[in-house]
From TrEMBL:
Name under which the protein is recorded: Membrane protein
InterPro entries: EamA_dom (IPR000620), EmrE-like (IPR037185)
TM stretches of this protein: 25-47, 59-78, 84-102, 114-135, 147-167, 179-198, 210-230, 242-259, 265-283
Oxidoreductase among keywords: no
UniProt keyword terms in alphabetical order: Membrane, Transmembrane, Transmembrane helix
Keyword Transmembrane helix: yes
Domain EamA: 1-128, 150-281
Domain of life, source organism: Bacteria
Length: 286
């Protein structure tokens, strides 16, 4: 699980290398999703998993595919605009979006611990994002002028992913997770292809560094998903999936080593608070 978290964090660092070298978001999502869909499809075929779904499940899968497509585009857009670790920390608010959507769409009351953890996570995000602009020395207005769009993309990605999780739980029950992911990644790849064609074709890297980034994000994401499907069912989702929430910490270290990105000590402290809050929510179900 720690290896998966490391590869997911590295995937976003590789994405930033590609973006810095001329690759646009739609092209990155197209490469990543196409290869991942092919890998997961090979797993589905290899295990001879059933594809049969009813009308309700098919509708839910279409909605989930659209939401994951939006999440992918928005998260990579955030990574292109923010330090990688900050983009992932803002995205890590998705457990709270999940609770909100469950309440709004299905009338489920949020768990008391979710409500308890929410102010802690908001405090951590406020510190990590330096909402006052004090750590950056720019002041609030100039600071948010620089990071506002990236934060909006990251939070939109979190909201989309949270809603997708709720619909997966209620609308795709009975569909094997690997079949669901193969279908979802295929839909995301189709959405990205439409976006790429609308922009006149793929925006490819200008140098070898960009190609390493594009290939890296594709291989890392596809490999992480393959390992996840192999390991997580054996370990059990409960009590283990929360370990993956250390992804922003790995991303912070990798972004510093590879991209030279640094954030202030108070922002690091805020990031640790966010990670701790989200991990606590995941581990409480163990």
């Amino acid at each position: 699980m720690l290896l998966i978290a490391l590869m997911m964090g590295a995937n976003h660092v590789a994405a930033r290398l590609a973006f810095n070298d001329g690759v646009n978001v739609a092209t990155a999502v197209l490469f990543r999703s196409t290869v991942t869909a092919a890998v997961v499809l090979a797993v589905v075929v290899g295990y001879r998993l059933p594809w049969r779904t009813d009308a309700r499940q098919r509708r839910a899968l279409l909605i989930v595919g659209g939401l994951i497509g939006a999440q992918s585009l928005c998260l990579y857009s955030a990574v292109a605009r923010l330090p990688v670790a900050l983009a992932l920390l803002a995205f890590n608010s998705y457990p709270f979006w999940t609770a909100l959507w469950a309440r709004v769409v299905y009338g489920e009351r949020p768990d008391r611990r979710v409500l308890m953890a929410m102010p802690v996570l908001l405090l951590g995000l406020a510190l990590a994002l330096d909402v006052s602009g004090a750590a950056s020395g720019l002041g609030a207005a100039d600071h948010w002028g620089r990071i506002g769009a990236g934060v909006a993309f990251a939070l939109t990605a979190a909201a989309s992913f949270g809603l997708a999780l709720v619909i997966i739980q209620h609308g795709t029950a009975g569909v094997d997770g690997r079949v669901r992911t193969a279908a979802t990644m295929a839909l995301v790849a189709l959405m990205a292809l439409v976006g790429v064609m609308a922009q006149g074709g793929p925006a490819l890297p200008a140098s070898a560094v960009g190609w390493w980034g594009l290939v890296g994000l594709t291989v890392l994401y596809g490999t992480a998903f393959t390992i996840m499907f192999t390991v997580l069912p054996r370990l059990g989702v409960v009590g283990n999936s929360a370990i993956m929430n250390v992804e922003p910490i790995f991303a912070l270290v990798l972004a510093w080593a590879v991209l030279g990105q640094t954030i202030a000590a108070v922002q690091v402290a805020g990031g640790l608070i966010v990670v701790a809050a989200v991990m606590w929510l995941g581990l409480r179900r163990a």
